[in-house]
Amino acid sequence: MRQLIVLGIVGLIAQLIDGSLGMAYGVTSTTLLLATGIAPATASAAVHFSEIGTSLVSGISHHRFGNVDWRTVLILAVPGFIGAFAGATFLAGLNGDAATPWISGILLALGVYVVWRFLALGGARPTFKGRPGKGLLVPIGLVGGALDAIGGGGWGPVGTTTLLSSGRLEPRKVVGSIDTSEFVVAVGGSLGFLFALGSQGIEWSIAGALLVGGIIAAPFAAWLVKILPAKVLAIAAGGIIILTNARTIALSLGATPPVVTTILIALALAWVSLLVHVIRLERKTRREEAQAEPVPADA
To answer: Per the UniProt record, which residue ranges are transmembrane (predicted)?
Structure first.
């Protein structure tokens, strides 16, 4: 029972991060599961199946708070399902280690661009022109779905990062749309996993505990996305993108654990400093807007 409670807390933390920033459920939950002594294969299978339920509840919660652009979700869903199913069924036996550093390098560059783009605004409000089209969303769905199935994660990092950097959707709708469409991706990957490997080796109790924790966290995470200013949300997501991909690149280059830890601590401190700076700018902008509002004639 104690282990199931711990696993429920793992699912809660992972979904709180993923539901708030549009990524990192797989990375967070798998990392925490491994830290509790669960075997990698068991952890991966449990995470993928629990994600079906957590992403469904997360999508419903985001919809209730108005965080979802349904046109984006509908276009992403089909290629995402196809990519995830194909990745789990036909490509699971391929070694993706060689491509991982290159993909992480691209995502890291996009993460830096996202942070720079919103920092460059200063106290101004961000504007979002148009909506992402099929030419952008279909490749995101295929690549993100396939990477998610092959490597145990990729839908959020690829989708959230690319859409944020495009400047077409406000950050809260990027996060909400990616989280909502992730349900279809999780179903596709899980079906492919069952088709290729069968149901043996899946620890349903672990998946269930993760699911319960994720369900508890999903509505709160969606509410956070609703109330956080666009710049704060974008900087927060950009920081997660940079941290996770910097770690992958450092490890692929042969950096020792102490060096990796030092790099991540330095980046985390810089990230927190930027968040504090953006929050202060947001408060200053709100005060100025309140002072600029005209006083009613009958006041």
So the answer is: 32-52, 73-93, 99-119, 174-198, 204-225, 232-253, 259-279
CB neighbourhood size of 72 (10 A): 26
What is the pLDDT, as a whole number, of residue 118?
Answer: 74
pLDDT digits (tens, 9 = 90+) for 65-86: 999 999 999 999 999 999 888 8
Contact 206, 39 (CB under 8 A): no
Name all contacts of 276-283 with Cβ < 8 Å and 24+ positions apart.
Answer: 278/118, 278/119, 278/231, 278/232, 278/235, 279/232, 281/122, 281/123, 281/231, 282/229, 282/231, 282/232
pTM: 0.74
Q: What is the mean pLDDT of residues 283-298?
A: 71
Q: Which of 57, 28, 14, 51 is nearest to 193 (CA)?
A: 51
Nearest to 275 by CA among 239, 299, 245, 251: 239
